């Protein structure tokens, strides 16, 4: 969907990431070098009156296929494993209220086969968005459904055919999807060896029984470990339905406002399976084998991140000691982004947060 990413600073961002850092005090590995340059750019952008939004990775998995957790606050993450990636998507669209051409699509991928090559990440923990100050509206989403065939088009225009008024249009298409799943696999038995040593007496004085000479003996023991089944994460390629939609500004269910020079950590905003509701009886053929259907309902979940978790995770996962004192202070004082809920809300989900729904409202 063209125009999601803010046109500001993308070229500058990529160019500055290739310049050597001026503030490094000790050798850093390549990943830390990248993060250090990015932090310098963030500081520069804030000084120029732009705002920087750090979008949190929703999944606390160190690497693909890893069941472990990354150091940090557990409450910071939305889910605790890549196994939980589907069918919840955090790829939501924000657009500037006063200039719809300025905005961004959050890029932490739900489908690793459709990663955004232009996305800029601070470590594996945050996506970085540099944007003008202002108010941004929650304007759409990209979601996925597994084992869900495309609806059959009727041949009539999606928004013009008879039925309840639509909020907008959903474009659906079949895509390859990499699904992570938990399985059990056999781990064969093995043998461990342990080296030991002991000192013993070789000569004893007869009268006193005192040891007058010693020797050292070394030996090895072995222990057999039986084979067993263990948990493992694997990936498989499946066919999924990709749903992509945007809604008019008047129907936006949430918004946020950022000030010039403000550094914030975004809330977790997600859309789950069934969050994008369509009228499957009024679909039409779209371009490139896609199907366009009227959007009848769009539900997001919003889960704020506490200031403590935001600061702790940021400082723990970045080379903050190598940046300027000014930037260190900004990182220590980072605030969670305040999202204002405009749409209809429901009971809080303990995992995903507060549901907020936009529906067609003729008054708008």
Total number of strands: 20
Please work out how many helical segments DSSP would assign: 4
Helix content: 10-25%
Mean of residue pLDDT values: 80
The ordered string of helix (H) and strand (E) elements is HHEEEEEEEEEEEEEEEEHHEEEE
Query: What is the overall shape?
Result: elongated
Query: What class do helices, strands and sheet pairing give?
Result: mainly beta
Distance between the termini: 25 Å
List the quaternary state of the chains. Answer: single chain
Radius of gyration: 28 Å
Low-confidence stretches: 1-24, 61-73
Major sheet description: 13 strands, antiparallel
Beta fraction of the residues?
35-45%
Describe the 3D structure.
With 364 residues, this protein is mainly β. Helix content is 12%, strand content 40%. The chain is built from four helices and 20 strands. It has helices at 10-16, 30-47, 307-316, 325-332; strands at 51-56, 92-96, 103-105, 121-122, 126-131, 134-146, 168-187, 190-204, 211-225, 228-246, 254-258, 263-265, 268-270, 276-278, 284-285, 291-303, 335-336, 339-341, 344-345, 354-359. Strands 2, 3, 6, 7, 10, 11, 13, 14, 15, 16, 18, 19 and 20 form a 13-stranded antiparallel β-sheet that branches. Strands 4-5-1-12-17 form a five-stranded mixed β-sheet, covered by helices on one side. Strands 8-9 form a two-stranded antiparallel sheet. The longest helix is centred in the first third of the chain and has 18 residues, at 30-47. It is elongated. The relative contact order is 0.20. Mean pLDDT is 80; it is low at 1-24 and 61-73.
């Amino acid at each position: 969907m063209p125009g999601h990413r803010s046109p500001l600073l993308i070229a500058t961002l990529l160019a500055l990431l290739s310049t050597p850092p001026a503030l490094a005090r000790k050798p850093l590995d390549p990943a830390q070098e990248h993060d250090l340059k990015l932090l310098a750019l963030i500081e520069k952008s804030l000084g120029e009156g732009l705002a920087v939004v750090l979008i949190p990775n929703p999944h606390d998995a160190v690497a693909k296929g890893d069941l472990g957790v990354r150091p940090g606050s557990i409450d910071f993450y939305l889910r605790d494993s890549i196994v939980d990636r589907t069918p919840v998507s955090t790829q939501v669209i924000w657009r500037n209220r006063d200039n719809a051409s300025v905005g961004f699509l959050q890029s932490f991928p739900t489908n690793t086969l459709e990663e955004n090559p232009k996305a800029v990440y601070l470590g594996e923990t945050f996506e970085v968005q540099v944007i003008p100050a202002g108010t941004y509206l929650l304007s759409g989403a990209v979601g996925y459904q597994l084992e869900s065939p495309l609806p059959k088009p009727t041949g009539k225009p999606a928004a013009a055919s008879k039925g309840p008024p639509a909020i907008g249009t959903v474009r659906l298409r079949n895509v390859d999807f990499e699904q992570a799943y938990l399985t059990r696999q056999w781990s064969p038995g093995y043998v461990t060896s342990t080296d030991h040593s002991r000192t013993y007496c070789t000569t004893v004085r007869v009268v006193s029984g005192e040891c007058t000479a010693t020797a050292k003996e070394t030996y090895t023991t072995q222990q057999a470990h039986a084979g067993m089944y263990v948990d493992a994460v694997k990936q498989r390629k499946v066919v999924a339905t990709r749903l992509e939609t945007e809604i008019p500004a008047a129907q936006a269910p949430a918004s946020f406002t950022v000030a010039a020079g403000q550094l914030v950590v975004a809330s977790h905003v997600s859309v789950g399976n069934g969050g994008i509701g369509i009228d499957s009886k009024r679909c039409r053929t779209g371009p490139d084998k896609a199907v366009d259907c009227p959007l009848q309902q769009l539900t997001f979940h919003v889960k704020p991140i506490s200031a403590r978790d935001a600061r702790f995770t940021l400082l723990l996962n970045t080379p903050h000691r190598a940046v300027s004192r000014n930037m260190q202070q900004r990182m220590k004082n980072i605030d969670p982004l305040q999202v204002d809920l405009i749409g209809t809300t429901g009971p809080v989900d303990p995992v995903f947060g507060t549901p907020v729904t936009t529906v067609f409202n003729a008054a708008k």
